[in-house]
Specification:
This protein is mostly helical and 467 residues long. Helix content is 77%, strand content 0%. The chain is built from 17 helices and no strands.
């Protein structure tokens, strides 16, 4: 966490503060690109240097002769030359204005880099805990008999949700208060010159946007609080009343989640590109953080099992978690391909530009995410035996989690920093900080309650579950 704070601090401190600094950065990059191609005088080519010197001298002499020659036709061409001079001056002014606009755009992109790195890490870890909460709610409503021995692991991971929600809500407030430019539709100057964003202003406006965020985050955290409270109370209860309460509120939560998750994905990710939309996007985002959440459950379970805890968890439980990791990875790939193929095939300019930008500027992370999130899991986890081997699952889980972090990076960075992206100190710092905070909160929460929910109605079935 300390390393992460230092990395983020470095990113904010080194971000350019004005156009002059941007010009220096671009000049340094340009110099680096052309330095290798610059001509170098060597002892092997003295004749070439002499020829170049002679040519310069000839050109200078010719210029002197031309300047001293007075032609009778000069008077006749003065007027066109003056007109052409004015046109050239106007063209130069336009070019200068365009150059200044470009510099200002690059300035915003470079200033967005640390903010975007912070945003990607913040939303990713918060959504991991949300994905675990949804998986827990599904187990409650389905009255699953295999999973109760894992409930306290799930509740420990969801303990990060309140922390992540507060940090993320504060970040949204800073965006709305114009501490950064990562959401262009929050910039009044941009909206004033963009009719498409103006047409969406009834939905994309800061007050309505932040109220929606408060409702969604509040609703998710309320369910998390009461479901954990009821689960702990069930341990001391003489009947199944608290279990039934959890069943009821879990059903209501899942309905609320289905609606709120779609809107959340539009508000917090898709609105980075306010000119673009996809009807599959809500499902796509869900699949990404849902499989990340299930993978996290598996990783934490394996760690605790290795330390001698979770005595009733056996290889069949691990096998089922691995099946979910495999299945949802395939589901994510189906959504990725469906969204990409339909938009790419239709080739509608305002839609396909989303993928053109990512393929041209983010080629490696864009296709790398597909390899990490589909090719690698399907090659490893399709084998039944591998689903029970700890080191294989740890390796696969690490790749899946990093792959979906890159997936969120691909969804956010192209719209906020454009071609100025780079995985450097701010990006690694943000990842370190939120990873450290996540681990600290989760494992602290796991020490606050027994890891075995002894009074769950399906606990005996879960204890003796074998596949």
């Amino acid at each position: 966490m300390v390393l992460g704070i230092l990395g983020l601090g470095y990113g904010f401190l080194t971000a350019p503060k004005n156009i002059e600094e941007v010009e220096k950065i671009l000049a340094a990059e340009e110099h680096g690109h052309h330095e290798a191609a610059a001509p170098v005088a060597t002892e092997e080519h003295p004749a070439a240097e002499a020829v170049a010197t002679t040519d310069i001298k000839k050109d200078s002499l010719q210029a002197v002769n031309d300047s001293t020659r007075v032609d009778s036709t000069q008077t006749a061409v003065i007027a066109p030359v003056v007109a052409d001079t004015h046109a050239t001056a106007a063209s130069e002014e336009d070019a200068h204005a365009e150059h200044q606009e470009h510099l200002n755009h690059v300035l915003h992109q470079l200033q967005n880099k640390p903010w975007s790195a912070l945003y990607v890490a913040c939303i990713f870890f918060m959504l991991i805990s949300l994905g675990v909460l949804v998986f827990y709610g599904i187990q409650q409503v389905a009255q699953a008999g295999w999973s109760p021995v894992l409930f306290r692991v799930m509740q420990g991971i969801t303990a990060y949700l309140p922390w992540g929600s507060v940090l993320f809500f504060c970040l949204l407030l800073l965006c709305g208060l114009h501490f950064n430019h990562i959401f262009i539709w929050l910039d009044p100057e941009v909206v004033a010159h963009d009719k498409l964003i103006q047409n969406k202003s009834g939905y994309l406006n800061f007050p309505f946007w932040i109220v929606r965020a408060a409702i969604f985050l509040g609703g998710w955290n309320l369910y998390r609080y009461f479901s954990r409270k009821n689960c702990l109370a069930q341990d001391e209860s003489t009947d199944n009343s608290f279990y039934k309460k959890n069943f009821n509120i879990s059903a209501m939560f899942l309905v609320f989640f289905i609606v709120s998750e779609s809107i959340m994905s539009w508000d917090w990710i898709m609105s980075f590109d306010p000119h673009w939309f996809s009807t599959l996007f809500g499902w796509y985002v869900f699949a990404s953080f849902f499989v990340s959440g299930i993978t996290t459950i598996c990783m934490v379970t394996l760690y605790l099992k290795g330390k001698g805890y979770l005595e009733h968890v056996n290889t069949s439980h691990i096998h089922d978690l691995a099946k979910f990791m495999f299945g949802i990875s395939v589901f994510w790939t189906y959504l990725w391909f469906s969204q990409f193929m339909l938009i790419w095939y239709a080739n509608i300019p305002e839609e396909v530009t989303y993928f053109v930008t990512r393929i041209e500027m983010y080629n490696l992370p864009f296709f790398g995410a597909v390899v990490m999130n589909f090719v690698f899991p399907i090659l490893i986890l399709i084998n039944t035996d591998f689903k029970r081997i700890t080191w294989v699952l740890v390796m696969a889980g690490t790749v899946i989690l990093f792959g979906h972090y890159v997936d969120f990076f691909n969804m956010i960075m192209p719209a906020t920093v454009g071609d100025q992206w780079f995985i450097g100190i701010p990006e690694l710092g943000a990842l370190c900080f939120f990873l450290g905070l996540f681990i600290y909160v989760v494992f602290t929460a796991l020490t606050k309650a027994p890891l075995f929910p002894k009074r769950n109605p399906f606990i005996e079935e879960s204890k003796h579950f074998h596949y």
